[in-house]
């Protein structure tokens, strides 16, 4: 299911003295099956965009096309339930929304609200728990007896229980330790690969963009300033630096190495560690015997 924004503007409290413009002239697309990263500084409009992805907010101007639905400020609020089911949003700190006495009831809440029988909802609970790395032994436990990371998994399971086609993740690893972050990010990636889920990730982490995303949208002051594949987006390091958006560590390392040593790595723009290693190994091999390179990279013997 593709999602497309055309000339979208959005003002909070439109038509009141408190009107505040959050988006203007936003044109973007989220291709079906993509892993899209939505990046930009605080206040650039990322959360406002995400709330348009399932019509929690309706554009003040322009239109948002979600699959075969076109949402404008004239759209009525009827029949949006189906849309909300197709596009699941994991808000920041989703564990704060847990409320039932057992994990099973919490995860089953959404489907049962959509008319699914209790027995079928429990079957869904059993299906989604392993997707978030938990097993059936958790079903009758209280969500409030879990660790922070486990609570977050339960909250994510609640969104997955709706069997969405698009999963929107608003800084899903905020507040987790590095191991927890890695596990959760790998889990989303697995869902993307195994279940073909379209993912929209709101993040400040350029390494996550480089590792997982295949499409990037950059917002600045309420509008889209760049959009494209990561390789293209990270090509222009000067522009990114000027915008203080930062680079993935692999690329930052190569640029520093190049500046400090004068070594020309050509047009290679490694985004991930293994790509960086490949670029360095190729350069070392190419220059084996060249004192300069061997010295600058620490005399690594690549055999
Ligand atoms: N409920 C609201 N009422 C009025 N203005 C709001 C509201 N929510 C956000 N804004 C404003 O809209 C603009 C965009 O905010 P938004 O939260 O979408 O940005 P963001 O990129 O998600 O920021 P962050 O990275 O901090 O989450 C900001 O100027 C913000 O102050």
Which term fits the overall shape?
globular
Count of β-strands: 10
Going by CATH, the architecture of the largest domain would be 3-Layer(aba) Sandwich
The count of domains is: 2
Structural class by sheet pairing and helices? alpha/beta
What can you tell me about this protein's structure?
- The chain has 303 residues and is of the alpha/beta class.
- The chain has 2 domains: 3-242, Rossmann fold; 249-293, no CATH class.
- It is built from 12 helices and 10 strands.
- Strands 6-7-8-3-9-10 form a 6-stranded mixed sheet, with helices on both faces.
- The model has no long low-confidence stretch (mean pLDDT 91).
- Bound molecules: adenosine-5'-triphosphate (ATP).
- Adenosine-5'-triphosphate is lined by residues 12, 20, 22, 40, 42-48.
- Residues 12, 20, 22, 40, 42-48 line the site of adenosine-5'-triphosphate.
């Amino acid at each position: 299911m593709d999602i497309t924004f055309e000339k979208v503007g959005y003002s909070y409290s439109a038509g009141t003295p408190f009107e505040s413009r959050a988006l203007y002239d936003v044109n973007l697309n989220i291709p079906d099956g993509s892993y899209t990263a939505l990046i930009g500084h605080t206040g650039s409009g990322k959360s406002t965009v995400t709330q348009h992805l399932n019509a929690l907010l309706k554009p003040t101007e322009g239109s948002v096309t979600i699959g075969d639905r076109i949402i404008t400020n004239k759209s009525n609020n009827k029949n949006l339930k189906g849309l909300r089911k197709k596009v699941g949003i994991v808000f920041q700190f989703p564990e704060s929304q847990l409320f039932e006495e057992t994990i099973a009831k919490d995860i089953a809440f959404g489907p049962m609200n959509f008319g699914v029988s209790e027995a079928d909802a429990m079957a869904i609970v059993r299906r989604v728990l392993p997707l978030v790395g938990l097993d059936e032994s958790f079903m009758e436990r209280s969500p409030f007896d879990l660790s922070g990371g486990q609570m977050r998994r339960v909250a994510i399971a609640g969104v997955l229980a709706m069997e969405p086609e698009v999963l929107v993740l608003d800084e899903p690893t905020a507040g987790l330790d590095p191991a927890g972050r890695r596990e959760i990010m790998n889990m989303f990636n697995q869902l993307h690969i195994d279940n073909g889920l379209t993912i929209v990730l709101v993040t400040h982490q350029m390494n996550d963009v480089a590792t997982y995303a295949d499409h990037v949208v950059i917002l600045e002051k309420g509008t889209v300033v760049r959009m494209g594949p990561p390789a293209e987006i990270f090509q222009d390091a000067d522009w990114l630096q000027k915008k203080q958006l930062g680079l993935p560590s692999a690329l930052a390392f190569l640029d520093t190495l190049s500046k400090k040593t004068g070594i020309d790595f050509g047009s290679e723009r490694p985004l991930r560690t293994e790509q960086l290693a490949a670029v360095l190994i190729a350069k070392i091999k190419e220059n084996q015997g060249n004192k300069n390179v061997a010295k600058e990279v620490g005399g690594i013997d690549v055999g």
